[in-house]
Amino acid sequence: MSVQPEAAPVVAPEKTQTSRRAWGILLFAGVCEIAFAVSTDGSRGFTNLSWSIATVITAAATIFTLSLALRTIDVGVGYAVWTGIGASGAAIFGAIIFGESLGPLRILFLAVIITGVICLKLAGGSTDSAKSDD
Q: In degrees rounded to 5, what are phi and psi of residue 4?
């Protein structure tokens, strides 16, 4: 009589690890959103081919990565963080790349957006148990 070893139980990843991964993906989605906004401006109404190609690629990347993050993060929080990263990053990089104005008041309100994004992250917004694959 041979004794077969019991199979090790399958352990689901910890919620904190899943949440951390989702927030990392959301951060990457925000970076893609910045690239999308900057490349859209650079495309000059889709008249510049290289910037236009970059616009299409970054648009697909930002939507795809946002959708991955929203598997775990609440849509309201995820979307607010994504647009906050995109808006503030686009303003900063627009000033750097295209020489757009970025005065003290704009910097102040960009800081308010960034602070809001950080506070949303600290407040949570992950619903690992509520968002299961049905």
A: -85, 135
What's CA 19's distance to the chain center, in Å? 13
Q: How far is CA 108 from the centre of its chain?
A: 22
How would you class 110 by CB atoms within 10 Å of its CB: exposed for 0-12, middle for 13-18, buried for 19 or more? middle
Quickly tell me which residue has 């689901």 as its tokens: 12
- At 58-112, the pLDDT tens digits run 999 999 999 999 999 999 999 999 999 999 999 999 999 999 999 999 999 999 9
Question: Residue 34 corresponds to which tokens in the numbers above?
Answer: 């910045």
Backbone angles phi, psi at 6, to 5 degrees: -70, 145
Run of H or E including 103: none
Dihedrals phi, psi of 127, to nearest 5 degrees: -125, 65
